[in-house]
Amino acid sequence: MDQDQLEKNKKKYKKAIEPFQPKPSYFKNCFKAFLIGGVICAIGQGIANLYIYYFDLTEKTVASAMLGTLILIASVLTALGIYDRIGQFAGAGSIATVTGFANAISSSALEHKSEGVVLGIAGNMFKIAGAVIVFGVVSAYIVSMIRLLVQTLIS
Amino acid sequence: MRSQTMQFNNGIYVQSSASVVGPKEAEGPLKGCFDKSYDNLYCGEATWELAERKLMSEAIELCLQKANKKNEEIDFFLGGDLLNQNITASYVAREKEIPFFGLFNACSTSMEALTLASVLLDGGFAEHVVTAVSSHFATAERQFRYPTEFGGQKPSTAMYTVTGSGAAYVSKKKSKIRVESATVGKVVDLGVTSPFNMGAAMAPAAVQTIKTHLQDLRRKPEDYDAIVTGDLSRVGTPILKSLLFEEGIDIYNNHHDCGILIYSADQKVFSGGSGCACSAVVTFSRLFDELKKGELRRIFVVATGALLNPLMIQQNESIPCIAHGVSFQYEDDYSNR
């Protein structure tokens, strides 16, 4: 079969299978993501408020303590096999939050436990989260450069 | 003209078969049909890879036990799985000490192995051949997709890899199940790139194999009590039926899909089951049982395989797919001949 005919067949097939593809329900998925994402944020805020009330922490210093707690909870839920179920339900709602990041790291670490501590756990821990860190650092660098530029231009 | 179909007229028979499955399969609609099941994905082993190995090893053991055969009496072992370098089959072959062919055609390996076993027997190069394939949900997830506990959302077109292994022992001694013919598939790729939509990717390969099989043997779909595909699932099955219908082949009445048969709709398996073991454990348990009883007289099993490699997908390649079909026939007068 020549290349043109194959490309034509591919296009034809893509069209032919369209009616058989289940349509993702965007509204429902958005709502679920909003709901669970919101719940996670509310829990974070609740933890922060508690910490400020009970410990010697301010609005500014409580953030890392609260994040640490959320990360711990997410990792424990990952280990118990619960977080992936939340993820299947909530989609972006539980992935985009810091708990999703914790899940990406702890699930990779768990997965590769069988290959040992060094090459398995340590070597694979950032398999998924690595890309997030790289782009986080790169974009932070670019944004701060722009900020510096704008600041020097204004003054 | 070239023929993709081989007819085995010298009599190749399935002597025995066995299936061992994991927890989800054992809870499904076919729960009573399997020889053994585990209620945990680890199957009592330390790692998932070891668990899969145990499944295949036990499937072969049970299969040969049923036919009263020992490993030393078997000429060849044809096996395959989904993992890189066919590690499950190779390590099982190390343990069984049977001369070994390692095969890979993704989820169509079950029928590829039976085809080659029949060729070896028909050609007179072997007397006793055992075939086995396996797949495991967690080993497949980690190799082809994400860590099992990763909370990424999967679309409803995704599939759930069957945990289990099926083994079949074939020889020329007469039995109730005859391997009648085999159609070797061509690799077909119509440009589907999503590893979460393998049903749509594999359907054209199944169309090609079924169409060719019927043409080669000058048969109609009605000549079969059942035309069974391996793992097209709820997305690929309607595509297959409608594509074949366009070609003038109507299989709406006698088509089944192992990926749909093995799980019930409420088991949260997305669009259905997949994996080497999917076609194997369904065919080697339920379908062979019905053939032995004569409830099915002739069936055509088309195991569909997505020859997927995550690296190639990341390089923007599409998924090449293949389907191998084997037809089995009930022999009612086998004892008198």
TrEMBL record, chain A:
InterPro entries: Spore_V_AC, SpoVA. It comes from the Bacteria. Pfam families: SpoVAC_SpoVAEB. The chain crosses the membrane at residues 33-55, 61-82, 89-108, 128-150. Keywords: Membrane, Transmembrane, Transmembrane helix. NCBIfam families: spore_V_AC. This is Stage V sporulation protein AC.
From TrEMBL, chain B:
InterPro entries: SpoVAD, SpoVAD_sf, Thiolase-like. This is Stage V sporulation protein AD. Gene3D superfamilies: Stage V sporulation protein AD. The lineage of its organism: Bacteria, Bacillati, Bacillota, Bacilli, Bacillales. GO terms for molecular function: acyltransferase activity. It comes from Anaerobacillus arseniciselenatis.
